[in-house]
Design goal:
The chain is of the alpha/beta class. The chain has 9 helices and 17 strands. The longest helix has 24 residues. It starts with a helix and ends with a strand.
Length: 353
């Protein structure tokens, strides 16, 4: 039994777990009852639905600590409603606005959320202004439909909606949780007009899609740098949840001084790759890196991760010594010319569970 299947049985129990496993294997749709969720959820056959389901209910990607009781939650890129339903069951007093543009997703989104009067569904997509958009299918499944600008008279075009307009229509003064998984549209959302609403966001969960649209991360971090995002206030969390990984941000005296990016192994969800770890030069050799790594390892342990893998140049003696001697990594592989002639890489592994 693979790790995913075992986790599903552990979450759902024998009967529901078996129903779900058979539906996945035989490729037919299924409605699943989940402990702690008031009403069953539908999972379509042979789609990306099961991956989204696993992330939210198995991996608990949105089980972040938050001190206040949210009143307004905006779910941008709601897909088929699993995140909205998760929020509705966790924060029963919150008003949740779920925005999704794609027809097949919106139909199931409405069905999955129909039992929750506190979930409002809007068939649209978030953008930086109220222009017309159209769906762009990039061939990555139901969880990866993109949108792009269109003319009003183009077939299947629809009007976008801005976060400022969503906030104004809601009647609330602030957005307690803003979740954005908008397949690259974050580049436009954080390029212009964000000044009207960004300071009113209390907690943000975002997935950045640089592989789908170049420049998303740069635009996002440039937008938030002038706002007082603090880990202590959970206005911008230390972890930004990504579909196959996590981004950790390290703050000191309200200043962002470090970033680390972990990506999950697609074939083994218990293993992650440390693809990047950087610390501002002025904050190096002060113990921040060690503390940062320790906190991330503790977080990943709680998330069920068993191994961390990274690679460094074998010529970088300082980095090799740091990872092996201070953090306990061991050598597992040497790859010659990994990034071109003379660009060798040494792969290191740390077992944490």
């Amino acid at each position: 039994m693979c790790c995913r299947t075992y986790k599903r049985y552990k979450l759902l129990g024998i009967i529901e777990g078996t129903r779900l496993s058979l539906a996945i294997y035989l490729k037919y749709p299924v409605r699943v009852s989940i402990p702690g969720v008031l009403h069953p959820l539908e999972i379509r056959a042979d789609t990306s639905d099961i991956k989204v389901f696993d992330q939210i209910f198995l991996d608990e990607d949105y089980n972040f600590p938050i001190s206040n009781k949210p009143k307004l939650i905006i779910d941008g890129g709601a897909n088929v409603g699993y995140a909205s339903v998760y929020f509705a069951n966790r924060f029963k007093e919150a008003h949740i606005i779920a925005i999704e543009p794609e027809k097949s997703n919106i139909n199931l989104l409405k069905k999955n959320t129909s039992y929750y009067p506190n979930i409002e569904v809007i068939e649209s997509a978030i953008w930086d202004e109220n222009v017309y958009l159209k769906i762009k299918d990039v061939g990555l499944g139901e969880w990866a439909f993109m949108v792009e600008r269109s003319k009003p008279d183009e077939p299947n075009s629809f009007r976008a909606i801005t976060i400022q307009k969503l906030l104004a229509k809601s009647g609330y003064q602030k957005i307690d949780i803003l979740k954005l998984d908008v397949e690259g549209s974050e580049k436009e959302i954080f390029s212009r007009n964000y000044e009207e609403w960004l300071g009113k966001v209390c907690f943000m969960v975002i997935e950045l899609h640089d592989k789908m649209k170049v420049g998303c991360s740069n635009v996002f971090y440039s937008a938030i740098k002038n706002y007082n995002f603090k880990k202590s206030q959970t206005i911008y969390s230390i972890e930004t949840f990504a579909r196959f990984g996590k981004i950790f941000l390290l703050y000191f005296n309200n200043e962002l001084i470090g970033v680390s990016i972990f990506i999950k192994d697609w074939n083994n969800y218990n293993k992650v790759y440390l693809s990047e770890m950087s610390l501002k030069k002025k904050n190096q050799n002060m113990g921040f890196g060690t503390k940062f790594m320790q906190e991330m390892v503790n977080f990943l342990k709680q998330d069920g991760i068993e191994k961390i893998v990274l690679h460094v140049s074998p010529l970088n003696d300082i980095a090799v010594h740091l990872y092996k001697e201070k953090f306990g990594f061991t050598e597992i592989e040497f790859r010659k010319d990994e990034y071109g002639i003379g660009e060798d890489r040494l792969f290191l592994e740390l077992k944490i569970n």
